[in-house]
Amino acid sequence: MLTIDPKRSLLLVVDFQSRLMPAIHDSETAVRNANRLIEAAKLLGIPRLFTEQNAKGLGPTVADIPVEQDRLVHKQFFDACREDGFLDRVPADAHVVVAGCESHVCVQQTVLGLLQASRKTYIVRDALGSRHPEDKETAIRRMERHGTEIVTTEIVVFEWLQTSDNPHFRQTISIIK
Is the pLDDT at 103 greater than 80, yes or no? Predict the structure, then answer.
């Protein structure tokens, strides 16, 4: 299957943290689109997983993003896959949809770790952030070269819906408009 399978999907929201976000280029767009993905995932029954990098130093996830504490992984490694138990929370056949910051550090290293662990990954270009646009674009190109798919928020939502007959179609469409 070339499209994202909603039955196998997992939304991974990486490090949208309070002390980091003021430095992120166009952070408002990344946060807004991450929230759209979270809302659509909840509505469609897609599991969610959140990470926080060195929360003592970078603070908690920004208040604008509704973190589910039982789905939060605290980490010190930039690559979440190196944290004990992280990969146990990502099914082997998962289609992992990734949003987060910083694109060229924690997102990239985590995606490369997921790919190395044979997980299918999709990075959501308009829900990623870095301090400098060139770091974001370079990371996107690198992750793509190693096998991740590049998507946008709307691509993800429509592939999760699959059909306009989906009973959650109207509610989901209102989230992305």
Answer: yes
pLDDT tens, 1-15?
789 999 999 999 999
**Residue 17: beta bridge partners?**
61
Rounded to whole angstroms, the Cα distance separating 20 from 7 reads: 33
Classify residue 134 by burial, with Cβ atoms within 10 Å: 0-12, 13-18, 19+: exposed
- Nearest CA to 108 out of 4, 2, 12 is that of 12
Residue with tokens 């996830």: 61
Residue of 19, 14, 43 lying closest to 114 (CA atoms): 14
- The pair of structure tokens assigned to 68 is 């589910």
Which tokens go with 104?
């060229």
Q: Kindly report the three-state secondary structure assignment for every residue of 44-87.
A: HCCCEEEEEECHHHHCCECCCCCCCHHHEEEECCCCHHHCCCCH
User: For residues 148 and 131, what is the distance between their CA atoms, to the nearest angstrom?
Assistant: 22
Confidence of residue 176 (pLDDT cuts 50, 70, 90): confident
CATH number of 9-176: 3.40.50.850
E strand or H helix at 125: strand 120-129
In this structure, what DSSP letter does residue 156 have? H
Confirm if 112 and 106 have CB atoms less than 8 A apart: no
